[in-house]
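At this stage, I wrote out one protein, both as residues and as discrete backbone shape codes, and that material follows here.
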Amino acid sequence: MAFLNFPPWICEPDAAEVVELFLRKGRKRQFRRNDAFEIGRASSEIYLLKTGVIVLYIEEGRWFDEPRAYSVYLPGRILGAVRSISLRPSKLHARALRDVDALALPCADFRAAVLADERLQVATKDDIISKQGTQNEGLLVNLLYDPPARLVLLLDAIFAAFRLTIRPGWNPVPLDLRTNEYGAIVHATRVTVSRVFGHWKRQGLLRRIGHHIEVNAALFEPERTLTIERRLRPDGVWPPRPDVAPG
């Protein structure tokens, strides 16, 4: 599936030596669910997540009626390193999907520490390349695949992020997301996600246990994420973006 050999949407954990910098010098910060904030200016902070989930998103009301996420941060990930190192004046919009415990460093302090240590420079460079690749991978998936395939790939990315192997039979999804949160990540409406999940439920591929979702391993069979060429519509229109679900 991978176009750029990075996992889509969900960033990989940052290098241990960079994380250790936050453990030594970081200050405790908390965000509550749905807190929205900006990062990336020279005077702001960057964060190492210890618990919770944060997404970077394109602000609603400017280009889209609903927020469109393009990067997901789980515990062990550092949020804001790219802008901190580059000192670009642009800002990023972030939102906490769950309550978050984090360690914060001022951007200037992080940049100074990295520039003073060659080992941190190499590790930070690798982390930044990984994050940029993951964001680009997610954007390409959202552009080139239809909503059901995007959701399969997101679920697969979630299992991979938690280092879990998909086993035969039912598999509890290790990250509980709401329907609109799935939609924000795969750039589909809440209605579309509900229709896809309903279709899978009727096929015996998805079930709900309370507030949790379990998926059957059969959902991840290769034919559910067909090659781009086979997903061209019969009329040849490109890109194939029917925002509807089967069934």
Remarks:
- Residues 171 and 214 are 5 Å apart (CA to CA).
- Helices lie at 16-25, 81-86, 107-115, 118-144, 147-161, 179-186, 190-202.
- The radius of gyration is 19 Å.
- The chain has seven helices and eleven strands.
